[in-house]
Specification:
By secondary structure, chain A is mostly helical. Chain A has eleven helices and two strands. A two-stranded antiparallel ribbon of chain A has the order 1-2. The chains are: A mainly alpha, B alpha/beta, C mainly alpha. The structure holds adenosine-5'-diphosphate and magnesium ion.
């Protein structure tokens, strides 16, 4: 039971991490109608920036702050140099062009940081565990991720629902022409949104880097998961992305814990321990396939989107 | 003897908008039945339901004695219904002749033929050329559909509906965006078609409607407010009221 | 067929492919033969993707799955002691077809970007099935001890023979695709790409034509998978990784979508770029970096990535489209 609680918390933590990635992706997808495969590269760059700047400054929080700004700027640069030329093209062009960017960033990382991964060392106060219930300890760091990500989610919600910029973003997500008609500097808005999305992805990357390591290609598998999440949640919907992320995180993590045990009932222990994680990785894709078969345009299709 | 097309209590809502509200009418074989109404009255939505592009919330559509309310488009097409689109819908990356030949092919048995060159089959190309000829496009057969002018695209739009040798045509504003000369030619062509086909015609050009229609149904906010022969519609007070914004339109048709 | 630049390039390419083993024997180096075998096999896969993506407008982001399925059928049968190619190959095709049927039947309910993503999802599921096959090497893959046996008919282990088998498969594929896209079936497929609603309005049940096309493409790619497994004597989930599906898309677009020889040209160009870019960089850029101790040629994908972006932005018709434009300008 306690183990189950821990698994659920881990699932929540992973789901929230996924949300940070999915939020930017769904905004960019919903507003600019851009399929950005290179979003995972920004996640990776965030991880490497985080590892580098925390090591350079010797301060964890300081390094993370610098890394966040760096990913924001990188994202805006990528938007100005490459992405804005892809708006209005068809999705195949997006897939192809941003696929090229993935190759570029992977190689760039190898050139700058070398092929080996990079560790992001946590300060002592994060690298402990904390008693969440009497007799139940849980990783302080994972808890911190949950708190930070929930804070970001809340902040995003407030910005999108309550501010002028948020209104523009919502207007853009449901009706591109209208935003244009309002005479808003669309170009600037797009660059800004893309940059924020990049920073969020980078934040997810640097938080994950301390649990695993910063690695080349680390963004690719999780990017696909993030896509699954925004498709399930409905393209352009932050709330849909939030719900679907948590759902996906829980399914993935709890599945990983439960499926091997279930498999052991029918398979040999060694076969079950290989097949278990792989089959639980499949669960999310299975979920998406089922959702799309039943609802070909996702669970919460945004009204203005095709 | 029942009508070729029977529409019973058809209804469709989009959220709060009632696009089709308990619509009832019949079209007997050989009739040219015009549906008129202001923009947003639900004319396109009505055609889409008759043709299966949209499914009605309730009601029934019967064509040639068959209940087609829930049939997919291609089966309606096989039964002899054909439609043209208000917003031109062509195969822009194929040639004009290919466009029509595809429509012929659709009704020449299934297309699970994997080997022979379809562009060399006279049983597809000849009827397609004949239809192009009737639509006045014979000289443009090898042109890419994307290279046609707006007027020519409207003609091709109609030609594709004809190519499947239908029993009944559902025409959604065939004259939309045409100049006076092109319009006159289209009216001539519709008069020609009227002799051969049963037609449901949605059109804004009142002059054309009153010149061509055997009967007219007036749709406002999804509702049928009047239905009858042109003379009766001309004198209908409700219709005049509904057309307040476009009064001179009806006036023109009435006097002209 | 007019003799223009396009057909000339295609003809030269075919001729060059025919002569590769001769050249390899002449210089006594089998490396080039191995590279070209791979090229030919991937060209089959790219041609099959072009059938659905270029002609049919179905952008599948999971086409590499069939490379894996075909490969695993061969690998697993070999592992279980069944070496006969007469069993392995037909089975590889049938299993690929069945997978394509199921995946296509479900995926084709969606459109646009949802189709891209659902095909990706199915490919990911199959990828993870591969990872979970602990009996067959799981993540590490499965070494194939003996290549497919065709009695005394063909010796697959002979490099030049195997190359010609692959090349024959490619030519047959190209011929079949050529007939297919010009047949009534092909017209129906292209109509559905161009305007699916209108196709249904004029009376085509487009779903079943698209599904059939999807199955044909999957089957052909399964053949490529069986060949690839024989070529590398190895199969692992890595051939099904989503980036491999991305590579296939790149090959098709690079060469030119919805053209017969486009995917072949694209595959050759892509793999040649993989081989040539590092070489060219080592001769041109590396000397300037000697003091720093860095060899830029090792990081050639830094050039390849932006190059792909440039192709997307400025050369949408791919190489074939580029050739077509040049030949149109030539005075005839
Ligand atoms: N797919 C749709 N979703 C929501 N509302 C729609 C849709 N299609 C049409 N409508 C609404 O239904 C009404 C009728 O539209 P339409 O049939 O196009 O009118 P008409 O062809 O007579 O101009 C309009 O108010 C229109 O906004
Ligand atoms: Mg209309």
């Amino acid at each position: 039971m306690l183990l189950f609680l821990e698994q659920c918390l881990n699932g929540l933590q992973f789901g929230l991490l996924l949300f940070l990635l999915a939020a930017g992706l769904t905004l960019v997808f919903g507003i600019m109608d851009l399929v950005n495969l290179a979003h995972g590269s920004l996640y990776m760059m965030g991880a490497y920036f985080g590892a580098t700047f925390t090591a350079l400054t010797g301060s964890y929080l300081g390094g993370i702050a610098i890394a966040l700004v760096a990913t924001l700027l990188l994202g805006m640069a990528v938007e100005v140099i490459a992405m804005r030329r892809l708006y209005g093209r068809d999705h195949l062009d997006h897939v192809l062009g941003t696929f090229g960017l993935i190759l570029f960033f992977n190689e760039l990382v190898r050139l700058i940081w070398g092929p080996a991964g990079m560790n992001l060392t946590l300060p002592g106060w994060l690298n402990t565990s904390i008693e969440i219930l009497p007799g139940v300890n849980y990783s302080m760091y994972r808890l911190a991720i949950i708190v930070v990500a929930l804070g970001v989610a809340l902040g995003l919600y407030l910005v999108v629902m309550r501010t002028r910029i948020g209104m523009l973003i919502r207007a853009g997500a449901s009706n591109r022409e209208m935003t244009g008609a309002l005479g808003i500097n669309i170009k600037l808005l797009y660059t800004f949104v893309f940059g924020v999305g990049a920073a969020l992805a980078g934040l997810a990357g640097m938080m994950q880097a301390a649990i695993l390591t910063a690695q080349i290609g680390m963004g690719e598998n999780i990017l696909i998961l993030a896509f699954v999440v925004i498709i399930i949640g409905g393209i352009g919907s932050i709330r849909g992305a939030f719900i679907a992320s948590i759902f996906a995180g829980l399914i993935d993590t709890v599945g990983r814990a439960v499926i091997p045990d279930v498999l052991k009932l029918v398979l040999s222990p060694s076969a079950a321990s290989t097949a278990g994680p792989a089959l639980s990785s499949m669960l999310i894709y299975l979920l998406m396939a089922i959702v799309l078969v039943v609802r070909p345009a996702g669970l919460f299709p945004a009204p203005g989107n095709r | 003897m029942s009508a070729l097309l029977q529409v019973e209590n058809l209804a469709k809502r989009f959220g709060g908008i009632v696009a089709t509200d308990d619509v009832v009418f019949n079209i007997p074989e050989g009739e040219l039945h015009a549906v008129i109404g202001p923009n947003g009255a639900g004319k396109t939505t009505l055609i889409s339901q008759l043709f299966g592009q949209l499914m009605p919330d309730s009601g029934r559509v019967t064509f040639a004695g068959t209940d087609i309310t829930r049939l997919p488009m291609h089966q309606r097409s096989a039964l002899g219904l054909a439609r043209s689109f208000q917003i031109t819908s062509l195969f822009l990356d194929l040639s004009v002749l290919d466009n029509v030949a595809l429509a012929v092919q659709a009704h020449a048995g299934h297309s699970f033929h994997f080997w022979r060159d379809a562009r060399k089959q006279s049983e597809l190309r000849d009827p397609a050329r004949a239809v192009l000829d009737r639509a006045g496009l014979a000289h443009l057969g090898n042109r890419s559909a994307a290279a046609l002018s707006h007027g020519e695209r409207r003609q091709l739009e109609l030609a594709m509906a004809l190519a499947g040798s239908p029993r009944m045509l559902l025409l959604d504003e065939p004259m939309a965006g045409l100049g006076p000369e092109e319009s006159a030619r289209m009216v001539d062509m519709l008069r020609e078609l009227k002799r051969k086909y049963t037609i449901l015609l949605v059109e804004h050009d009142m002059e054309a409607v009153f010149a061509l229609a055997d009967r007219i149904t007036v749709l406002v906010y999804g509702r049928v407010i009047a239905s009858g022969p042109p003379d009766e519609i001309r004198g209908n007070a409700q219709v005049r009221e509904a057309y307040l914004g476009e009064e001179d339109h009806v006036e023109g048709a009435v006097n002209g | 067929m007019a003799l223009n630049l396009r057909t000339l390039v295609a003809a030269l390419l075919v001729l060059a492919l025919l002569l590769v083993p001769v050249y390899a024997a002449f210089i006594g180096n089998n490396f080039i033969l191995s590279v070209c075998t791979r090229m030919v096999i991937l060209a089959i896969a790219a041609t099959s993707l072009n059938l659905i993506m270029g002609y049919g407008g179905m952008v599948s982001f999971g086409h590499a799955a069939y490379l894996g399925i075909g490969g695993y059928v061969v690998g697993i049968l070999a592992f279980e002691g069944i070496y006969s190619g007469f069993i392995q190959w037909p089975l590889a095709l049938v299993v690929s077809a069945v997978f394509a049927l199921v995946i296509g039947a479900l995926s084709l309910r969606t459109k646009g970007v949802y189709f891209i993503m659902i095909t990706l999802a199915f490919a990911q599921m199959i990828y993870y099935v591969g990872v979970s096959l602990s009996r067959y090497g799981a993540d590490d893959g499965l070494t194939i001890q003996r290549r497919s046996q065709f009695g005394d008919l063909i010796n697959m282990s002979h490099k030049a023979t195997f190359y010609y088998v692959c090349l024959a498969c490619l030519f047959i594929t190209l011929f079949v695709v050529w007939r297919l896209v010009n047949s009534r079936f092909g017209m129906a497929i292209q109509g559905a790409r161009s305007n699916d609603t209108r196709m249904r309005a004029i009376g085509f049940p487009t779903y079943r034509y698209k599904l059939t096309c999807f199955v044909i493409a999957g089957t052909i790619c399964g053949l490529a998978g069986a060949l690839l497994a024989n070529h590398t004597d190895f199969i692992s989930p890595a051939v099904m990784h989503w980036t491999r599906s991305g590579d296939l898309i790149v090959m098709v677009v690079l060469g030119g979508m919805a053209t017969l020889f486009g995917p072949l040209i694209g595959t050759v160009a892509f793999l040649a770029l993989e081989e040539a870019l590092p070489f060219v960089m080592s001769k041109t850029i590396d000397p300037y970096f000697i003091p720093s101790g860095i060899r830029p040629s090792e990081y050639w994908q830094i050039i390849l990535g932006p190059l792909l972006l440039l192709v997307v932005l400025f050369a949408r018709g791919g190489i074939d489209g580029f050739l077509a434009r040049i030949s149109d300008k030539e005075p005839s």
